[in-house]
Amino acid sequence: MTTRRLALTGMVLIFMALNVWALYTYVTQPRYVGANDFYQRWQGAEAFWVEGRNPYSTAVSRQVELFLYGAPASTDPALDQYPGDFLYPFPTAILIAPLTVLPYDLASAIWMVLTGAAVALAFVLLADLFNWRPSSWLMMFGIVWAVTLYPAARGLFLGQPGVIVVCLEIVALWALAKQHDTLAGVVLAVSTYKPQLGILLIPFLVLWAIRFGRWRFLVSAGVTLAILLGLSFVLLPSWLGDWIAQASQYNGYTRIGSPVWVITQVYLPFLGRPGELVIDAALVLLMLWAWFGVLWKRDLTLYNWTIALTVTVTHLISVRTATPHFVVLLFVFAFYLRELNRSGTLPVIIVMIAVTVFHWWLFLATVTNHIESPAVYLPLPFGALILLLTTQQRWRQTQPATARPEPVSGSVSLPS
Predict the structure, then answer these.
(1) CB-based contact 159:111 (threshold 8 Å)
(2) 109: exposed, middle or buried (C-beta count within 10 Å: 0-12, 13-18, 19+)?
(3) Residue by residue, what is the 3-state secondary structure of 198-252?
């Protein structure tokens, strides 16, 4: 088994290396438009590590804009140009430091391959988490489906760091389900380099860990986060204030808010801001009710449903989200694909193809001047919410064979 795993690992690494070479040769070296989101982080980190400059400085932001647009960013909405701010917490610069010593063309090719690999890994781990054992060819089809699904493909093209963040969240959830608490803590702490994506999930997991005595998870997460933040303050003492200053301006120039915002401001404008707040509050109360069942009543049969609801609500109400972040909803859809697979392989294939074709058609039918339409923000998160609200008992009743009873010690094994 060890030899087989080593051989498989070697094949995966070779495949990834070939993909890096292909992307570098045919995409990033010729400088086709793309990976802009990654470039902002890479240039800021490169400015710090190689040139000794503050990544949050105006000079670095202007350098990014000149590279991306050939001039300072325009405020014309039709051009869809944003300030070249670093915008992320400083631990981001620590995590991508190895890539800053490479030419950007090569660094971006590596980042795009890592992004695709993260999505593929997330799909495989979700299948294992839900005790779904598809055939080898269906698993490969599922991996391709996950990577080519609109949010993942767009995130890969943009080099969006949030895709890797939500994949790290999925890895952490898998690790907790499989009792790998140290790994879960480390991975979840690393995922905070874009903290808003875990703004609801992380508090729930912390409360759950306290409630059920998963101290190793809490300690490993706390130590990892302390190391990242401690190094950040040592390397750049002013980073927190600099980051907050940039982040405070972000909502002033972003043009699309949360999916709930899209509904209440774009398609049902008579609801306005009051309607948005009411819907947000209702969704949060629904989520807290689910938390109450797991944390207070200790009803672990709905643990996974509560996780699914939490990540769905996060991306429905977040002040500012992006479609690549919806990759985390694979946690929801993998469960239903597993259930659908009970009826055979063909229904799974049909649903995968239909979802992909519909979402790409929606994007192509509504895109204007290469700018993504608010419409593409709606199908996945609202679809996930509808499924969760109408099939809650399915999550409760379908317990995988790997679920184990709660130990007498007070720690708990998760239903996968």
Answers:
(1) yes
(2) buried
(3) HCCHHHHHHHHHHHHCCHHHHHHHHHHHHHHHHHHHHHCCCHHHHHHHHHHHHHH
Contact 60, 86 (CB under 8 A): yes
Please give the backbone phi and psi of residue 371, each rounded to the nearest 5 degrees, phi first: -100, 130
Closest Cα to residue 326, out of 122, 41, 92, 176? 122
Which pTM does this prediction carry? 0.92
Chain position carrying tokens 């306290």 = 210
Hey, what are 129's tokens?
A: 């988490």
Q: Give the model confidence (pLDDT) of 216-257 as tens digits.
A: 999 999 999 999 999 999 999 999 999 999 988 876 666 788
- In one-letter notation, the amino acid at residue 220 is S
CA distance 356 to 352: 6
- Burial class of 248 by CB neighbour count within 10 A (0 to 12, 13 to 18, 19+): exposed
The per-residue pLDDT for range 5-53, each reduced to its tens digit, is 777 778 788 888 888 888 888 888 776 666 788 999 999 999 999 999 9
Q: What is the CA 204 to chain-centroid distance, rounded?
A: 17
What is the torsion angle, in degrees rounded to the nearest 10, for the CA atoms of residue 330, residue 336, residue 339 and residue 341? -70
Encoded tokens for 174? 């898998």
